[in-house]
Amino acid sequence: MAVSRLFLAILLVVPTFALAEETPSTPTKEVSYFRDVRPIVQAHCQGCHQPAKRGGDYLMTDHASLLESGESGSAGVVAGKPAESYLVEMITPVDGKAEMPKGKAPLSETDRQTILRWIEQGAQDDTPESAKTKYDAEHPPTYVRPPVLTSVAFSPDGETLAVSGYHEVILQKADGSGMLGRLVGLSERIESIAFSPDGKLLAVAGGSPGRLGELQMWNVAEQKLAYSIPVSYDNVYGVSWSPDGKLVAIGCGDNSVRGYDAATGKQVFFNGAHEDWALDTVFSKDGSHLVSVSRDMAVKLYEVKTQRFVDNVTSITPGALKGGINAVARFPGEDQVLIGGADGTPKLYRLFREKARKIGDDFNKIKDFPEMPGRIYDVAFTSDAKQAVACSSLDGQGFVHVFDVESGKKLLELEGPLQAIYSVSLSPDNKRIASVGFDGQVFLHDLETGKKLNQFAAVPLMPHTASTN
Ligand code: HEC
Q: Is residue 91 in contact with ligand 1, taking CB distance under 6 Å?
């Protein structure tokens, strides 16, 4: 009796397993465009299919344009009909290769199935109203109030000032006498901009918080997007160029630091040593090393070629530094860096240690400059390395201090009143400082006297139209 019951139990159990294997439970989950499909398109397609760069004349930056056709005349997506959707044909691998993404590995099977299922299920749009934005060169953003400005940069010839806007970078004549152009890209927020050493390219780091991180590369003379690279799903910061103009580096909201071949956009450096957002980067004098600073309070040194972490430049003793570090600049001609952050004190460090590390040491520190009110957001050097500049803000008020590097003393404060200042740039002739911040104004000050020379709105304001600012 006992034996036969056991036998029966086995008989019952075994077929159940076999059955479960033959018909795996595939819940026909509703695929969401916004949650599931958009991130795939963003990571693999949008770089080449956006208003500023229309591969095959096909746009993929919003739901409606996915359903349209490009130069082929065939609709990219036909709701309910994957077999009639040209997009599906383009991403379906044949002998392990797919037409799209062009020049890259085919999409993963999971991603491809997600897109197929979404089309099968009717290719519905569930984009929240707040996430719908459609700007391009013909339809630039309009502003009723000036946008917060996070970044400003003089071109190497001193003729142009690039200023971060909302969804765009504005090119202004450096004396403020007129606008030269608007570089409208995908990212809502621009965090950082930097001209290549020869001034031909402008690297732009930004994103749409929680959705997209992006590195844009613009050809300055043509005001054309050379390429756009999606980087993780959060903003990217602190873009910098190697001295030879061959590489660009960025810090990322996913804590990583990345480097790219500037000509091709290919990622050539990745390091995840930080424990919080990496906010700024700079290369060593010969470009062989890269430095990054982060909200985790650390200044990290890497070897570019091997992508390896080399050293913590600052002390890693708890309490030695307070709060995050926002900015780093390299001392012209030396392997030394100026850093600034939450503790308000600009500090000069040498990059390569001359003594073996002892726990808790801060041997690499060369000097502190006098403390500024509030948090420091940006630091810079004059090209002759004589002066250092830092900007800070406290309770909405902005400060820009100029220091004598040799003596470490404060030389002057720029004439105010200023609201919070987030970025500074020095003219190549070291005569003027441009600064931008919370109030959307570009300020030009005389470096020698600290007197204000000029002030102008970074973007054109349209007081009487409905706005999406
Ligand atoms: C590196 C740039 C690049 C990337 C990335 C890219 N494309 Fe393309 N795509 C192009 C170019 C350029 C064309 C024009 C045809 C050609 O040159 O092959 C094109 C054409 C197309 C077309 C045909 C449009 C038409 O009607 O003629 C579709 C559909 C398409 N791409 C879908 C995608 C999808 C889906 C992805 C992402 C999985 C993607 N592409 C990624 C560059 C790119």
A: yes
Write the pLDDT tens digit of every residue in 242-268.
999 999 999 999 999 999 999 999 999
Ligand 1 centroid to residue 88 C-alpha, Å = 11
Q: For 190-248, write each residue's pLDDT tens digit.
A: 999 999 999 999 999 999 888 889 999 999 999 999 999 999 889 999 999 999 999 99
Same domain, 83 and 205: no
* 377: CATH: 2.130.10.10
Structural domain for 240, as ranges: 152-457
Tokens of 313: 């430049």
pLDDT digits (tens, 9 = 90+) for 330-351: 999 999 999 999 999 999 999 9
d(CA 68, CA 404): 59
Same domain, 208 and 304: yes
277 and 228 in one domain?
A: yes
Query: Is 71 touching ligand 1 by the criterion CB < 6 Å?
Result: yes
- Segment 94-99 long-range contacts (CB within 8 Å, at least 24 positions apart): none
Nearest 5 degrees, angle CA 450-CA 460-CA 213? 85
